[in-house]
Amino acid sequence: MNLFSSRTFKGKLSALIVMTTGLALLIAVFAFTLNDNISVKKSIQTRLETQAKIIADTSVTALLFHDQKASEEILASLEADQSIVQAAIYDVDGSRYATYTTGTVITLPNQFSSLALKADKSYQNLHLPIHYNGKEIGQVVIVASTEELTQRIIYFITTALFILLVALLLSFLITGRLQNEILLPITTLTNFASRVRDEKDYNLRVKVQAKDELGSLGVMFNGMLEKIQERDNNLETLVGERTQQLEDKNEELSVEITERKAMLKMLEQSEARFKSSFDQSAVGMALIDSEQSILQVNDAFCSMLGYDESELLTTTLGSKLEAEDAILNKHYHQQLVISEIQHYEAEQRYLKKDGSRLWGLLNVSAVRHEKSFLHAMVQIQDVTEARELSRKLTYQASHDALTGLINRREFETQIKQLVASSSINQHTEHALLYLDLDQFKVINDTCGHIAGDELLRQIATVMKETVRQADILARLGGDEFGVLMGFCSQEQSQRLAESLRKEIEDFRFAWDGQVFNLAVSIGIASINQTTHNITEIMRRADAACYMAKESGRNRTHVFRDEDETLAQRQGEMQWVARINTALEEDKFHLYAQAIMDIKRQEITHYEILIRLEDEEGNIIPPGAFLPAAERYNLISKLDRWVIKKSLAWVTEQSALSEDDFIVSINISGLSFSEPGFTEYVLGLLQTYQIQNERICFEITETAAIANLSSVTEFIKQLQQQGCLFALDDFGSGMSSFAYLKNLPVDFLKIDGMFVKDILDDPIDFEMVKSINEIGHVMGKKTIAEFVENDAILAKLEEIGVDYAQGYGIGMPEPVASVLSADLVAEDM
Amino acid sequence: MVFFSSVSVEAFADSTERTDRQAQFMAVYLLHFANFIEWPKATGEARNAFNLCFYAEGNVKSSIRELAGEQLKTTAIRLIEAPTFQVLKQCQIVFIEKRKVSEFQKIKQQTEGKPILFVSDKAGFIEQGGTIEYFIENNKLRFAVNAELAKETGLILSSKLLRIAKIVERKK
Question: Pick from A566, A808, A66: which is nearest to B143 by CA?
């Protein structure tokens, strides 16, 4: 039962006070009992300990002089303490020597053992050693009854409960008394309030007796009665005033009603006039409701769409529109209904009853009454013819009449739209291709304009088939075309440009019994966050196309902005941080590319290459970061890293495989001018203790010429150690034959630019051949780079080149997988 | 007047040899006495040594000799057998076995006024002016103390010792 469920305040107050008192006392009793229990226990323990100490002390001599009687006398002194029921002294051997007992049942063991003295609920044990000159010569054991403690607790609790009862009774009595003091004034006030309520006499006042809070309550109550009385009076005056006002208003209203009647008549006349003009209007007119249901139509509207009035009155305006237009229309209409707009106008396609389409210029305006929508007035004009004309004009303005492709202006508009969208995302990239036919002028000149036009039409068809569906192809004028590739990475665009080039290369134009080959030069410019300006984008693509033409036509060229050094440097600065981080985090990886001994048809060399792993785990080729590394003096750091890692790898591989292979390590020209570089490399060779004949350092021809003295010095020093040297990209410097005598290298690596075209280009073929011959005359081995297929390899064998390297021989692979793959192959 | 239980005393005829156990106890008790008696602050050499002198024969003598190497707290106990009169003055305890008790009066004269504890197992030793006298009661070795004499010579006997001793007074 809830103690506070008592309905009177008095009851609640009593319960609260009695409960609080009771709880406080209970807690106090519990705490005191606990405390007393602990302290009594403690004091008994202390007392027993003291007793035992005295016994131990006084019985020393009795034990020493073997006086059992004296011992017993000493123990007998315990008689004074009634709680002690037994005691004994044990001698040095643990035998019981003297005993004291009050006749209680427990008997102490004859032989002392602290373990035998077990604690009991009703007895407490204590034993203490007897010392003489620091030696233990016996034990005192005391057994005490705990009855005293129990009795004491019972006594304590009984007393406490008694006090509790008395306190509760007292508090109950005092509460009763106090309540009268407090409750009486409240009761008086309550009675007075109900009297005021019953008599509704606000002139009554309560008599205030006390000066406490209840007294002020009475004062406030009186104040409140005063306010009510005052308001009563005010109200009466107000009612009188209002009644007069109401009578005045009534008179005004009756005048107004007469005026309204006259107005209504005028309105009816006006509506009749409106109705006839609506019905007879030449413009199609209709009234529609908020759901676009047709409420009323005129004859012009019906005849425009070929329906009867009755047919239209059961439908909506939207149902007579092309689905696409209906959606837009509905959207506008909703805005009109909610007053977002006041009217709307749109050219839309209407479905006539005979199935044909009609372009109608729709004009809808809302009719409202006091801001709430009543209906909408619809007007439709047939603009089909005007529309058709404008469509033709638009097409002509944006398209090239000859090829049917879009023209330059439209193309630029498209780019503008794409650029606007590309700024949304920083990863978005598009590409712009600029194509220029290489032999168009020849055909145009020899076969005439008609042939030229035909050629352009055919080429446009070829290109249309080649580009992706979403790509935008345009004729920019003359023999120039443009392709806009939306959302297309540079690599993709290059690939697509290449396929376009190939298609046009393969295309044959036949005219008047003649067959013409064509070629195209393609410039590629990428559109990304950094490019904003359409003119700039077009210029870049144009410039790239020019470069493609300059470098020999029938090729593609990706725009590189030599002018925008700032942007480039920013890119490179980023690389500086990335290179340093990569070195710290060991994100550079060694790759190796196989080099084949052509005569033996065996892999005998590996060229070590460097790759960077970026945050996403993508492998980045050196072309991306080496220029930055060179510019910001990080190249030597990278070179050192590569040499060290390579030597470590070779050492590791030597342990695994008996196969001897030569490892080529590239060194940048800048490293040679760096003080201490030679010493560093010599030191590494010392550390790793590998056969130095297996290490070949590759130096580019241009780097060697630029740093001739330091390179020569380096070569000499390391050749003394047995290291080999190769001159990289030989042929690109052209002036190089003269220097070759001064550079005591072991290998010449023939520039891949010559090698890759030796099958087709007789000059390249001759170049490779002569480099090889001169190299052999000078006692150097030759290595051909860019060996992409077996045909090139066969050609090189024919010339007598010693080694071959390239994708046709082996792709660069992570060093970890290079030799392991070989080992597996050998095992098989 | 010293009173001894006649039965036990007669069991100890002067000429008879003590049992080994009794002889051992007599020797060890001498050490115990040293622990419960306080000598006045001595000067010189005596400060660093506790001299236990004895005149004994037979197994009592050998038992006392076995005390060699014992310590009194930090002080080493020096056993001196039949000391010269000169040395005698520096003894803290002088034990005279009953067979040698004839020497006692001479010893006493030589050590007049020195704080020396005289112990013997000779019946009537306290009568002759000794401090502690061993006796046998119920086949157990006990001892009597002339507390007054001890006090006169400056020895302070612990209450613990007195509690188990038989206290006697010498006839004046």
Answer: A66
- Per-residue model confidence (pLDDT) at position A723: 93
HSE on the CB side for A124, CA within 13 Å?
19
Please, which residues have CB within 8 angstroms of residue A632's CB and are 6 or more apart in sequence? A572, A573, A575, A576
CATH topology agreement for domains A9-154 and A570-827: no
Three-state DSSP state, B36: helix
Show the tokens assigned to A599. Answer: 């005569």
Q: Is the pLDDT of residue B15 over 50?
A: no
Is B164–A70 a contact, with Cβ atoms under 8 angstroms apart?
yes
Q: Looking at residue A474, what is its pLDDT?
A: 93
What DSSP string runs through B112-152? TT---EEEE-STTTTTTT-SEEEEEETTEEEEEEEHHHHHH
| Predicted confidence (pLDDT) per residue in A514-552, tens digit | 788 888 989 898 887 777 678 778 878 887 887 777 677
Q: Taking 70 as the threshold, does the pLDDT of residue A598 lie above it?
A: yes
CATH number for region A9-154:
3.30.450.20
A212's tokens: 């406490």
User: Do the Cβ atoms of B35 and A65 come within 8 Å?
Assistant: no
CA distance A70 to chain B (A): 6
E-assigned strand segments in A305-457: 343-351, 357-369, 372-382, 430-437
Residues of B with Cβ-Cβ distance to A58 under 8 angstroms: 160, 163
pLDDT at site A819: 66
Count, residues in chain A: 828
A759 in Cβ contact with A795 (< 8 Å):
yes
Burial tier of B35 (Cβ tally within 10 Å: 0-12, 13-18, 19+) = middle
| Subunit contact A61:B32, Cβ cutoff 8 A | yes
Residue whose entry in the numeric block shows the structure tokens 């690596």: A749
Q: Domain spans of chain A? A: 9-154, 281-389, 406-563, 570-827
pLDDT at A367 over 60: yes
Q: Please report, for chain A, how many H helices and E strands are present, in that order.
A: 25, 26
Beta-carbon-side half-sphere exposure of residue A733 (alpha carbons within 13 Å): 19
Strand partners, A814: A591
The shortest C-alpha distance from B79 to chain A (Å) reads 20
Q: Give yes or no for B135 touching A (CB within 8 A).
A: no
pLDDT interval class at A6 (50, 70, 90): low
B167 touches chain A (CB under 8 A): no
* Residue entry with tokens 């005391």: A142
Closest by CA position to A77, among listed A107, A50, A105, A55 = A55
d(CA A252, CA A248): 7
Q: Does domain A570-827 sit in CATH 3.20.20.450?
A: yes
Closest residue in chain B to residue A70, using alpha carbons only: B164
pLDDT of A3 reads 52
**Which of B36, B73, B164 lies at the smallest CB-CB distance from A67?**
B164
Average pLDDT in chain A: 83
Residue A618 touches partner B, C-beta closer than 8 Å: no
Distance CA A286, CA A375 (A): 10
A406-563 has which CATH code? 3.30.70.270
Confidence of residue A459 (pLDDT cuts 50, 70, 90): very high
Quickly list H helices, A449-556.
449-466, 490-506, 534-550
| B12 touching A (Cβ < 8 Å) | no
Domains and their CATH numbers in chain B: 6-168 (3.40.50.2300)
**A137, A588, A816, A823 from A592: Cα distances, Å:** 90, 13, 9, 15
Q: Which CATH architecture has domain A281-389?
A: 2-Layer Sandwich (3.30)
**pLDDT band for position B133 (50/70/90)?**
very high
Q: Is the pLDDT of residue A805 over 90?
A: yes
